[in-house]
Amino acid sequence: MAGKATGSVLGMPSRPPADWARITRSATATGAEVATMERFGRWFESRRRTDSLRVDRVPLDELTGWHRRAGTADVVHDSGKFFSVRGLRVRTSLGPVHDWTQPIFDQPEIGVLGIVVKEFNGVLHCLMQAKAEPGDPGGVQLSPTVQATKSNYTQVHGGRPVPYLDHFRQPAHHRVLADVLQSEQGSWFYRKRNRNIAIEVTEDVEVLDGFHWLTIGQLHRLLAVDNIVNMDARTVLSCLPFSGPGLADGTGEDDELSSAVARSSSTDQPSRHSMGELLSWITDSRVRNEVDTTLIPLSEVAGWRLSAGRLSHHTGAYFDVLGVSVRAARREVGSWSQPMIEPTGQGVVAFMVKSIGGVLHALVNARVEPGYLDVVELAPTVQCNPENYGTVLAGHRPPFLDEVLASTAEQRVFDTVLSEEGGRFYHATNRYLIVWTEPDRGLACPPDFRWITLAQLGALLQHSHYVNVQARTLVACLHSLRRPRARRVA
To answer: Distance (Å, rounded) from C-alpha 108 to C-alpha 150?
Structure first.
């Protein structure tokens, strides 16, 4: 193998050993330091009963507080804040279609996705919020301590202040575990970024109604349950410093997968490619792939039509833009209206993984999406809506999609349906998969794919615009596959 996976790439020094060691300890703790999973389950179900939203679909032209801008038909908020629905023209040398226009959400504000972390009985716990968003299937999900756009936390809506926000206004007053700007869906957002931040506090923290302490290990267990841990929580979890030296020691000896995950997170284990080789490959992909994007009036978007109060592609594929009216009893504001994106079907998002020299490697794709700030980000092996490849994109199936769909239950070491950001996307769910491939199986690796370790992904996650939001979810899911060593009875 070519090189070592290190935590000191890109000019950033390795974190103090205390960080990754304590993160690992919390990730393997699923007991009752603060609350058992059974107690959490009762609490969470009570939140789902009391915190639900009423969401009604309404025509885009009838949204309260929104209007169609004269001359462009863009859908904008009356305050000029929050976000808008605009048009995007894309020209590229890639893929089966080289020139198209589409609606896209333009939200230039940088929001805060923040988790407060505190140690109890020697184990780090995350303060999570039970929060309902209008697009979440099933209602309430677990969100970060703070999940707010700038318009929300500056109270443009005239509502109540965002709880715990002050902890993140001056993060230097706390121990910062992660703090990085990360992108969101590049096919639906135009250059959208949020601050992903986790800070550790030592002072007492009042647990407000709707909040609960959980270990990272407990959150990992919940990742395996459909639609409980929301996208914003998953992306912050992925940015935590899981990687460090010596993590291959003390793994579950009888569990090949768990041991491979631990070695993959360890910075002193070898990797297929060196960090220098990976960075050069990413840079080359950004230079080589030509993508030109221009925001245009929504009225100039071709192939889309407003019908029955929603904006849809003439083929019925991809996604719709619809309006919703929301009533909420336990939010900063009691009611509001907004546009949302509703995809036409459930997506498939998958990492193919295998052991290379006993070290787990994930197959990543250098993927171009029109809304990315820097052209290319590392994506999962497969990221698509298979329905689109039976209609308008027939004959252009993505690499490895058929292998993922044909995988056996035994190969699928992770298989859960998780929703995307419920504040902007209506019932947007993906089937998230991690598919184990035998080491000796020769998979042809196209030029825009590479095998990479968790330690290398962790190093890239300390910086912006390297790992996309879907891959970040799968990174969190991969870490959840590490199991603590079983205690031996003498």
So the answer is: 10
Burial of 390 (0-12, 13-18, 19+ CB in 10 A): exposed
Cα separation, 227 vs 436, whole angstroms: 23
Q: For the chain, what's the residue count?
A: 490
Amino acid code (one letter) for 239: C
What six digits make up the tokens of 343? 């995809």
CA 339 to chain centre: 21
Instruction: Write out the chain in H/E/C secondary structure.
Output: CCEECCCCCCCCCCCCHHHHHHHHHHHCCCCCCCCCHHHHHHHHHHHHHHCCEEEEEECHHHCCCEEECCCCCCEEECCCCCCEEEEEEEEECCCCCCEEEEEEEECCCCEEEEEEEEEECCEEEEEEEEECCCCCCCCCEEECCEEECHHHHCCCCCCCCCCCCHHHHCHHHCEEEEEEEEECCCCCECCCEEEEEEEEECCCCCCCCCEEEEEHHHHHHHHCCCCCECHHHHHHHHCCCCCECCCCCCCCCCCHHHHHHHHHHECCCEECCCHHHHHHHHHHHHHHCCEEEEEECHHHCCCEEEECCEEEECCCCCEEEEEEEEEECCCCCCEEEEEEEEECCCEEEEEEEEEECCEEEEEEEEEECCCCCCCEEEECCEEECHHHHHCCCCCCCCCCHHHHHCCCCCCEEEEEEEECCCCCECCCEEEEEEEECCCCCCCCCCCCEEEEEHHHHHHHCCCCCCECHHHHHHHHHHHCCCCCCCCCCC
User: What is each CA distance from 475 to 136, 193, 203, 344, in whole angstroms?
Assistant: 22, 19, 30, 26
Average pLDDT, integer, range 188-201:
97
The CATH class given to the 3-53+108-290+344-479 domain equals alpha beta
Rounded Cα distance, 448 and 366, in Å: 5
Amino acid 488: pLDDT: 33
CA distance 15 to 8: 8
Give 358-409 pLDDT, tens digit per residue: 999 999 999 999 999 999 999 999 999 998 887 666 678 899 999 999 999 9
Q: How many C-beta atoms lie closer than 10 Å to residue 155's C-beta?
A: 13
How far is residue 354's CA from residue 451's CA, in Å, rounded to a whole number?
9
Which residue from 454, 249, 485, 438 is spatially nearest to 359, judged by alpha carbons?
Answer: 454
458-473: pLDDT as tens digits: 999 999 999 999 999 9
Domain spans, the chain: 3-53+108-290+344-479
239: Cα separation from own chain's centroid: 10
